[in-house]
Fold this protein.
Amino acid sequence: MVLNNLGKIVVDRWGEIPDHFDFVSLDEFQCLPDHVHMILWLGESEWSRLFSNEENNHLQFMVDDVDADQSGLPNVPAGSLGTVVRSFKSAVTRSINRINQTEGEKIWHYRYHDRVIRSEEELERIRKYIRHNSLKH
């Protein structure tokens, strides 16, 4: 797939994620016309250390019970996947809006889909899907 200038911004911001989050490693990535696919590896962070010994239901309660900030977006804990994704989407949006002179314009859907990869086989299957998904567009 040949990316336009805006797609190239998305790819550039993807590559900058570890510069801002030293606990994140990048894996597979694909920028498509209307969405992206990515695999991120989250290492140890303040967030992961905080909940590493807690029961999963307590963690779920904590995530579900988050208040919204003044923008209406939920607060997300520093070091969480939500923080990384929000930062990436925000950096892309600022860069694109600067070029297009469209300050404040929204370009992303509010939500995103995440999945915990639990095995080497699943990882390879998802990598293959991400690589070949661009052939459909």
Observations:
- Residues 54-70 have pLDDT under 50 and may be disordered.
- The first strand starts at residue 24 and ends at 31.
